[in-house]
């Protein structure tokens, strides 16, 4: 049976993730509150954040910044999670 969650991204019930997608407490919180579709939206946003900020996931400070963006994107906490200032989405792209 598919696990359902009340997704904080989609604002509706949807199919949940199979396992926590990130280590620690943040990963558990995402697992409990974000759907697979919501996670896929985050992955699109993450790509933009990494590219626009020139981040590498091998850098511990970059991981800390990404986690701040995760908290902002999923839970509206802090000043992160939005598209980078001045970013213009390509025609037909999602925000």
From TrEMBL:
Coiled-coil stretches noted in the UniProt entry, renumbered to this chain: none
Keywords of this entry: Iron
Domain of life of the source: Bacteria
Signal peptide span: none
GO cellular component: cytosol
Similarity-based family: Belongs to the Fe(2+)-trafficking protein family.
Protein's name in the database: Probable Fe(2+)-trafficking protein
Organism for this UniProt entry: Thiogranum longum
């Amino acid at each position: 049976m598919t696990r359902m969650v009340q997704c904080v991204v989609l604002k509706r019930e949807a199919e949940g993730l199979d396992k926590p997608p990130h280590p620690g407490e943040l990963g558990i919180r995402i697992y409990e509150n974000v759907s697979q579709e919501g996670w896929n939206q985050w992955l699109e946003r993450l790509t933009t954040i990494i590219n626009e900020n020139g981040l590498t996931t091998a850098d511990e400070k970059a991981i800390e910044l990404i986690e701040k963006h995760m908290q902002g994107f999923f839970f509206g906490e802090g000043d992160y999670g939005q598209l980078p200032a001045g970013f213009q989405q390509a025609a037909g792209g999602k925000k």
